[in-house]
Amino acid sequence: MISIIICSRGQSFRQSTIESVAGSIGVPYEVIAIDNSKNEYGICEAYNIGATRAQYGILCFMHEDIAFRTTGWGNIVERILLDNSIGVLGITGGKWLPNAPGTWWSCGNKYLSSNVLDQSSNGEYSRYTYSNPEDKNLVDVAAVDGLWICARKEVWARFPFDEKVFPGFHFYDVDFCATISQEYRICVSLEISVTHFSLGSYNDSWLTYADVFYRKHLNRLPIGQVQLSNREACVQEYEACKTFLLQLIDKNMAVGIGYLYLSRCIKMKPFSRDTIWLARYYARYIWQNRYKRKHKG
């Protein structure tokens, strides 16, 4: 028996997803839709409210823009979560969270596990991603995507979504996994597939919460199910920090956010041409911001 929990923008948005659940889940279930049509809640708060109301032992937190491609997926979830070593189950995720700002796909394609059809609502865009390098039905990962997350209620009760640190709609999923991974396995099931009618949103808020996530888990990163060579880890982390810093500049984010990531680049590759150029570029960004503030006043 499964409790379906949805943070909903309204009845019209969630109706097709609820119908998809009804026609595919294959086990007794309930739907707990937290009405967020007035944008009263962040997704963490909405999910925690829903989980508190749930009457069943398995919680399934899902977006309202998905449709199931697998019949009887509820039986698969119940079978997998009988294993008490598993804390979180998803359908797409990555095996490595680098010591850098980024999310579950930051590990690169060769470490991704996924069985998702991404499709725009108007049908103009469609991409099916089936990635299963280990050729297994169940894969251990570092974090899963929040479009669909299952957990036993007892696990959520010990590690609820962090609504204080993540009051918005980004990085709640990666944070949930990073926290629970201290005591449980995080897994992706390749037996379950969905269509996801959203391409995501990578705006200023995404950058803000990427920074918040990194600073919260700084002492635990990297987190992962693979052992990267020192060289591969350094290359990945350097590129992630550099890319993130350039995104901060492009979005004209607060100057203070970037110091940490520039210092990490300098520490990893102090004499690199890229690092020298990056330091000069960021220094110019700082100067321009100070100049604008001075003359604005």
TrEMBL record:
Q: Which InterPro entries match?
A: Nucleotide-diphossugar_trans (IPR029044), StrF_dom (IPR059123)
Top-rank taxon: Bacteria
Q: Which Pfam families match?
A: Glyco_tranf_2_5 (PF13712)
Please identify the protein, giving its name as recorded: Streptomycin biosynthesis protein StrF domain-containing protein
Q: Which organism is it from?
A: Hymenobacter setariae
Locate the Streptomycin biosynthesis protein StrF domain: which residues? Answer: 5-190
